[in-house]
Design brief:
With 203 residues, this protein is an alpha+beta fold. It is 22% helix and 36% strand. It is built from six helices and twelve strands. It binds iron/sulfur cluster (2 copies). Residues 150, 165-168, 170-171, 179, 184-190 line the site of one iron/sulfur cluster.
């Protein structure tokens, strides 16, 4: 098993939402995106399918990279960036079992034009903008979680300016002051307000 418990929760959420935007990069380096279905969430990652004639297929093969985003009704957004590889074709049967609507799109043997891809590693974030304060949680499997947002470092002189501009009130007093990363919007207002250059971007 590659997928840890936290990441499994979120890839299950991707599967529950099912419809996601999938982005790749074409040969000229231009971004391309389309709506896809997350067909299966499993202990080794997420499975998707596409047919061999599509630009999406070529881009997955050429780059081995994919970015997903999805809108979930009770939180607002999920995003993920990861790597893909061709999966064993035996997974196609399972895809059609778990997603019976596929039989109407690719009836009978016409399904053979499809290949299954496994998203075998990646990192992402769940982001709840619907409740106050906003909340976020990052996750990853097969790689480290990505550090994003801002951190206050030792240069902090304790002036408090950052707390007045923070839209989420997620900076607490201390030496140095501290940002609560769970409720941070990553807006950067604290960095702009800091007279001591103590607020550093994490990525
Ligand atoms: S980045 Fe924005 S939301 Fe986050 S601590 Fe700074 S001001 Fe607050
Ligand atoms: S504005 Fe900068 S120096 Fe002032 S409390 Fe915030 S981080 Fe510290």
């Amino acid at each position: 098993m590659i997928v840890n418990e936290k990441a499994r929760k979120y890839i299950d959420m991707f599967r529950e939402v099912k419809i996601a935007s999938a982005a790749t990069v074409d040969k000229e380096g231009r971004p391309q995106s389309r709506i896809i279905n997350i067909m299966i969430a499993a202990d080794e990652g997420m499975y998707i399918v596409t047919s061999k004639g599509k630009p999406f297929y070529e881009q997955l093969i050429q780059s081995g990279e994919i970015a997903l985003s999805a809108m979930c009704p009770d939180c607002q957004s999920l995003k993920f960036t990861g790597k893909v590889k061709l999966a064993d074709q035996a997974w196609l049967t399972k895809v059609f079992e778990d997603n019976p609507g596929m039989n109407e799109v690719y009836p009978g043997k016409t399904r053979d034009i499809l290949d299954v891809f496994l998203i075998y590693e990646g990192s992402g974030e769940w982001f709840d903008l619907l409740h106050h304060p906003i909340s976020r949680e990052s996750f990853a499997y097969g790689r480290e979680e990505e550090k994003a947002g801002f951190r206050i470092e030792e240069e902090c002189i304790g002036c408090g300016s950052c707390t007045y501009v923070c839209p989420q009130g997620c900076i607490s007093k201390g030496s140095p002051y501290r940002i609560d990363p769970v409720h941070c919007l990553h807006c950067g207002a604290c960095r702009e307000a800091c007279p001591a250059d103590a607020v550093k971007k994490l990525h």
